[in-house]
Amino acid sequence: MRTQGAYLDERQQQALLAWARQAIARAVHAGDGAAGGSLPDEPVFREKRAAFVTLTRNGSLRGCIGTLLAVESLGDSVRHNALNAALRDPRFAPLAAAELPEIRIEISVLDAPAPLVYRDSEDLLSQLQAERPGLILEADGHRATFLPQVWAQLPEARDFLSAICRKAGLPMDAWQDSGLCYRRYAVQCFREKQ
User: Fold this and answer.
1) How far apart are CA 136 and CA 143, in angstroms?
2) Mean pLDDT in order along the chain per 10 residues (194 residues)
3) Phi, psi of 60 (to 5 degrees)
4) Which candidate, 123, 132, 142, places its Cα nearest to that of 181?
5) CB contact set of 175 (below 8 Å; sequence gap of 6+)
6) Torsion angle of the four alpha carbons 41, 48, 151, 2, in this order, in degrees rounded to the nearest 10
């Protein structure tokens, strides 16, 4: 799947990564979530875009927060989600200043999710295995998402679906019920160099 929004070039990607790191550094050093710097004045950073920010430390997840719908500018979305990933991911303690040099930042800029139409569970498996999109699962007040990068850890569609069901608080075999609602999306993903 190719992203629908404006494609970010290498310079723009590096600007967003630096923007996220500056916001996190200010927050963990001074308790201030202000941006502390600025993005280049380019239209792409003012576009309403959804984004996720993922933090890793020594290759392990250290925080991941994002938005699925474009409700604010890309620059604001990246800054807010960077701060939330560092300080408010409920799976982790807030990031300490001493950890900052070991953290690597990854940004995923999302396209608008589109409904995934399927006939039955075999058709669902086939489509997902072929496309490997980001996926949103919604059912009876339960909701979960996996970015496309999760396919690297869960390369089989059955395992991917079982894990997203578990994340949504549903039985792991709930994906076999044709009444579940799925939306798929593509991302442009980029990360800090090691």
Assistant:
1) 7
2) 69 96 92 67 94 96 96 96 97 95 97 94 96 95 95 97 97 90 97 88
3) -105, 145
4) 142
5) 121, 124, 137, 161, 162, 164, 165
6) -80
